Structure formats: structure tokens, C-alpha cells
Amino acid sequence: MSKTVFITGASSGIGEACAYKFAESGHNLIISGRNKENLQRVRAKVEQLYRDKKANLNVKVLIFDVRDHSACSQAVKELYDSNIEWQKNVDVLINNAGGALGLEPEYEGDIQDWETMIDANIKGLLYMTRLIVPKMIERGQGDIINIGSVAGDAAYAGGAVYCATKSAVKILSDGLRIDLAHTPLRVVNLKPGLVQTNFSNVRFHGDKERAEKVYQGIKPLKAEDIADVALYAVNAPKHVQIAEVLILATHQASGSVIFRD
Questions:
Q1: Do the beta carbons of residue 23 and residue 57 sit within 8 Å?
Q2: SS3 (DSSP) at 247
Q3: What is the set of domains in the chain, with CATH numbers?
């Protein structure tokens, strides 16, 4: 059965991989982010790869920043005011938008980096949850997938604020699961380790050489690996809730223990 899957931060990385994975399974997509050009590229690729095979596949692009509550509200209102039924009924919300910035000691951290991480990783997730989940409750169905991180399990040098935001994702996921225990809705917290995406390039503000060193000497995860787990969680039998999954590369033991050749 085709579902409507709303993915934030779908213009690259794990969000983009989730778009392809769910489209391949015949699900309709609402993909959002700040980069219009990248989102249009993702939509075009989805349609090229899957629309002929999945006749009823639809893709809606929404351009907004999850850090902006009014922009989130306007985007969701556009869906709910639509006469297009599949857009109004979100079955899966993937809270993926966010990321890390900087790797300085906490006492030397950039205030703007902190605010960006807190606003995107925590407040953006909360905004989208507040806007989408009540409608899921009304309909009696829905899956919420929050993209957390192994970084949420323990701090590492230079990453305290990012780790704190991902720890918040875990607690918010647990709290939402408790609050929804009387409903059929399911809450999933996916906690990836080292995934080779644009993550490190963003973290180091475009320093590609420094970003590439993060993945040297180890075969890291791919964004598609995380998308596979997200799809598995959604496809689990209705009585099964995949509450939390830690996903690491084979030679990674924790957020700070990595064996490199």
C-alpha cells in the first residue's frame, strides 16, 4: 500500500537516500529543504528512476528552513489546505534536517554554530513533530523517524554541543513514544555512526581536505544503509515498533573509537 512520506533535509545525504529508497517501494514523497536546486534534482531523479515503474508515484517539493517556525507552519498549511488527498495525509515523517558545525573545544565554540545546531537539530524536529503528528493521531496511523546519532550516546572532544543536540533527539523520541503509547503510532530513533555524506564538509565549513580525512582508513557507512533501516522500520508488522537502532561501520565501536588501517 502506498504511503505519503515527508522527509526534511531531503536535498542531500541521508534525506536524499531515504527519498530514493521510499520511492523505489512506491511511496509518495514530500521532500523539503532549503536548497531548491538540489530538491528539484532529487525530484527529477526520482521521477526518472521510478515513475514509469510506479504509476501512482507523486513527489511534492517544499522549500523552507526547519529552524523557522512560521515557515514550517506555512508549508504544512499548504499541504492541509490542498485538495490533493495524498498530500494531506502524511503517513511517515522523517525528521532528518540538521547537522554538525565546528569541532572546537566548548570554551572556544562559535556561538552562531551552536545556535544553528540547536535550532535545526532540536527545535526544527519539535516544530515538524508538533505540526504533523496531531493529524496522524486523528487518522490513527503514522510513523515518526527521527535521525539521531551515535553522538547522542556520549560526548567526544570538540563535539559537546552537537552531541547534546543528538542526545536531545533521543530523549525527545523516547518522550514522544511514551506520549503516543495509547495510539497505533510508532516512533523510531535511528542513530548512525560514521556516514560518508556531505556532513563533514558542512561541519568544517567547506574545508574539503579536512572533511575527507574523517573517512580515511575506514569503510564508512553510506546514506543508503540508513535509508534501508528506515524502510525496514516502516515495513515492520503493526505490532512491532523498532524503537531505536544504533548503526555503525564495522570498524567503529562508538562515537570516538574507530579503527583505521
A1: yes
A2: strand
A3: 4-247 (3.40.50.720)
Q: Is the full-model pTM beyond 0.85? A: yes
Give long-range contacts, CB 8 A cutoff, 24+ apart: 62-65: 62/30, 62/31, 62/32, 63/32, 63/33, 63/34, 63/36, 63/39, 64/32, 64/34, 65/34, 65/124
Joined grid coordinates for residue 80 = 492541509
Q: Which residues lie closer than 8 Å to 85 by C-beta, 6 or more apart? A: none
In the sheet that 59-63 helps form, which strands lie side by side, from edge to edge? Answer: 59-63, 28-33, 4-7, 92-95, 143-147, 186-192, 244-247
Active-site pick, 50, 162, 215, 232 = 162
- 13-58, pLDDT tens digit by residue? 999 999 999 999 999 999 999 999 999 999 999 999 887 666 679 9
CA nearest neighbour of 121 among 67, 69, 186, 84 = 67
CA 96 – CA 79 distance, rounded (Å): 19
Identity of residue 233: A
Does residue 162 have an active-site annotation? yes
